Amino acid sequence: MAKVAIGSNAIFTGPQKGLTTIKDRCYAYSGVVNISGGSSADTECLNFTTGKYYILMKLNWLSDNVGNQDKYVDMTFNGISIYKGKYDDLPSKGESAQLTMIIPPLTQVIFLWGCGTGNNVTVVMAGKVYS
């Protein structure tokens, strides 16, 4: 469930998989997530459920791996894959990939990441809430 914070209780306490909502804005920071390696997007970076509102969001992810390593992304809404990709070298180290989309009301969002030989990834989401 989305955490509602207003005023002094909106202090950042660290990265998490959840969504924080402040008035008509929201954000989620995964922090640095260690990926063990594999051939699919199987490590959870974000996992939250929206409330009775929709979100126009921008999602960025940044990986620290380099070279010809496969990278896998899978984003699901209520268990259904709505964005899935395999990249051979993009985004490269230091490059961020970006995705803009609308998240419907009462939707569980899960962002999964994978990498052929393992690495670290950071996922950042920021958006506007519409009731």
Describe the structure.
The chain has one domain: Sandwich (Jelly Rolls), CATH 2.60.120. The strands form 2 sheets. Strands 1-2-3-10-5-8 form a 6-stranded mixed beta sheet, with no helix packed on it. It is built from no helices and 10 strands. It is globular and about 45 Å long. With 131 residues, it is mainly β. It starts with a strand and ends with a strand. The model has no long low-confidence stretch (mean pLDDT 84).
Strand arrangement across the biggest beta sheet = 1-2-3-10-5-8
Secondary-structure element string: EEEEEEEEEE
The gyration radius over C-alpha positions equals 15 Å
Q: How many H/I helical runs?
A: 0
Helix content: under 10%
Distance between the termini: 16 Å
The tally of domains stands at: 1
SSE topology sketch:
Elements (H helix, E strand, L loop, with lengths): L2 E2 L15 E3 L2 E11 L7 E7 L4 E10 L7 E7 L2 E8 L8 E8 L4 E8 L3 E12 L1
Characterize this entry briefly.
With 131 residues, the chain is mainly β. 0% of the residues lie in helices and 58% in strands. The protein has one domain (3-130): Jelly Rolls (Sandwich).
